[in-house]
């Protein structure tokens, strides 16, 4: 009985470690110069089949929205999001939501101080499928200008 308890405990620890890495989403980043000190910062998420990440523009009391914290920049306008969009009632949260699967691109225009060589920060997102949600995940980034 003691061995089966240890085996079960080891399995749960390995399963939790695998899930906590949130390997169902791969992120890539790029930046495009608009003019002078203005740039578009582009974040692209490749989401494993059957999983979703959530829009930046959600109300309260639902899933964690996708957010971007970009240090030392001035945001220009509101960010945009494009991709495989699914909008409507979500059974898990019992509310209408906007979520994205497959590939989604988030774009934010920014203004940087003169002489800035790179921008950095982190993004936060949450993934769910039709049966479960994984804990919110933070991803650090640094992008050369």
What does this 3D model show about the protein?
The chain is elongated and about 50 Å long. A hairpin with a 2-residue loop joins β1 (25-35) and β2 (38-47). The strands form 2 sheets. Strands 1, 2, 3, 5, 6 and 8 form a 6-stranded antiparallel beta sheet that branches. Strands 4-7-9 form a 3-stranded antiparallel beta sheet, with no helix packed on it. The relative contact order is 0.24. It is built from 1 helix and 9 strands, in the order αβββββββββ. The chain has one helix spanning 2-20, and strands at 25-35, 38-47, 52-54, 67-70, 73-90, 95-112, 118-125, 127-128, 137-144. The chain is mostly beta strands and 145 residues long. The chain is 13% helix and 57% strand.
Shape: elongated
Major pleated sheet: 6 strands, antiparallel
Give the SSE string.
Answer: HEEEEEEEEE
Number of strands: 9
Question: Helices and strands in order, then pairings?
Answer:
Layout: H1 2-20, E1 25-35, E2 38-47, E3 52-54, E4 67-70, E5 73-90, E6 95-112, E7 118-125, E8 127-128, E9 137-144
In short:
The protein is mainly beta and 145 residues long. It has one helix and nine strands, in the order αβββββββββ. The protein starts with a helix and ends with a strand.
Characteristic key phrases:
single chain, 57% strand, three-stranded antiparallel β-sheet, 145 residues, six-stranded antiparallel β-sheet, mainly beta
């Amino acid at each position: 009985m003691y061995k089966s308890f240890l085996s079960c405990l080891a399995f749960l620890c390995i399963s939790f470690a695998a899930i906590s890495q949130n390997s169902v989403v791969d992120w890539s980043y790029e930046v495009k110069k608009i003019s002078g000190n203005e740039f578009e910062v582009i974040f692209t998420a490749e989401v494993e089949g059957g999983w979703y990440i959530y829009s930046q523009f959600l109300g309260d009391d639902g899933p964690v929205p996708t957010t971007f914290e970009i240090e030392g920049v001035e945001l220009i306008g509101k960010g945009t999001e494009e991709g495989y969009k699914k909008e409507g009632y979500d059974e898990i949260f019992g509310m209408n939501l906007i979520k994205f699967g497959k590939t989604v691109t988030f774009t934010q225009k920014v203004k940087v101080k003169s002489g800035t060589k790179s921008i950095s920060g982190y993004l936060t997102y949450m993934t769910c499928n039709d049966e479960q949600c994984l804990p919110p995940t933070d991803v650090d980034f640094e992008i050369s200008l």
